[in-house]
């Protein structure tokens, strides 16, 4: 199989991908900027600027070939729910289904904008079982140590809408290869049956107390951090461990074959 030309910072022809985090609707752009989070509008502007830089280096024809052959990876929804919708009282005027609709509408527009800029190979991860994230259990589990069914149901609804919207986009946009990576089920299986994949802990994370910390609060010096993260499904309150990612990567690689074929 030939290697696909993709975009990297040094303009080498490599298997690297363009990763763009999908945040909330454009209506939230101003709020996002005040939180030091890049809105979709600004991300697209940066994307256009980078394309112009590539044109100046290799010319228009080569640039079109690079970007149309590049694999674009998007992550959609997790932070929007856990770190925004569920904790922001101003957003509770929307039901979970209505909030999902806002995100999906924003996602659809974003994909069409990327397509208009030449992107043809796009992969997007669906929502994980957000009700099983250690931080979610801590914040919304009322003292239990079990997954929260209503949060997982919100994720299932969002994922169903993501699948149907993605199929509609593929039907309407000629030449678009759009793959929805299903991370929900393989991660849920890992959480419910950790021993099947060599893990011994799937409720508590490795970092710190293992129930809430994330980002800069998580490092090897954090008090309470485990000494062997390979036995944990989660590294911190929101993110899977490197060992878990290796297991998930096998599933995702098979799902994404269409992007590299």
UniProtKB/TrEMBL annotation:
GO terms for molecular function: hydrolase activity, acting on ester bonds. It comes from the Eukaryota. Belongs to the 'GDSL' lipolytic enzyme family. This is GDSL esterase/lipase. The lineage of its organism: Eukaryota, Viridiplantae, Streptophyta, Embryophyta, Tracheophyta.
């Amino acid at each position: 199989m030939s290697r696909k030309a993709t975009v990297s910072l040094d303009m080498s022809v490599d298997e690297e991908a363009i990763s763009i985090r999908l945040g909330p609707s454009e209506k939230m752009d101003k709020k996002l900027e005040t939180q030091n989070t890049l809105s979709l509008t600004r991300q697209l502007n940066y994307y256009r600027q980078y394309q112009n830089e590539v044109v100046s280096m290799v010319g228009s024809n080569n640039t079109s070939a690079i970007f149309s052959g590049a694999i674009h990876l998007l992550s959609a929804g997790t932070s929007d729910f856990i770190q925004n919708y569920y904790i922001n009282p101003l957003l509770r005027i929307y039901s979970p289904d209505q909030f999902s609709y806002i995100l999906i509408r924003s996602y659809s527009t974003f994909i069409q904008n990327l397509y208009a800029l030449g992107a043809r190979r796009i992969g997007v991860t669906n929502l994980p079982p957000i009700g099983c994230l250690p931080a979610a259990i801590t914040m919304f589990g009322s003292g239990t140590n079990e997954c929260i069914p209503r949060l997982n149901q919100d994720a299932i609804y969002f994922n169903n809408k993501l699948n149907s919207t993605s199929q509609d986009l593929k039907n309407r946009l000629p030449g678009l290869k759009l793959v929805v990576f299903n991370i929900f089920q393989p991660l849920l299986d890992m959480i419910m049956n950790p021993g099947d994949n060599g893990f011994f802990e799937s409720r508590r994370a490795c970092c710190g107390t293992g129930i809430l910390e994330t980002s800069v609060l998580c490092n090897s010096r954090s008090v309470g951090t485990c000494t062997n993260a390979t036995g944990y499904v989660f590294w911190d309150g929101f993110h899977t461990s490197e060992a878990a990612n290796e297991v998930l990567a096998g599933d995702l690689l098979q799902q994404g074959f269409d992007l590299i074929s």
